[in-house]
Amino acid sequence: MPEHIKKRLQEEIKALEHELAHELPQEIKKAVAMGDLSENAEYHMAKQRQDFVNARLGQLKKRMAELSLVNLSNIPRDRAAFGSTILVYDTTKDERIEYKLVTSEESDVAKGLISTTSPIGRGLMGKKEGDIATIVTPTGKRELEVLKLTTIHDEIGDVEDDEDAATKNGTGNKR
Question: N- to C-terminal Cα distance for the chain?
Answer without folding.
Answer: 17
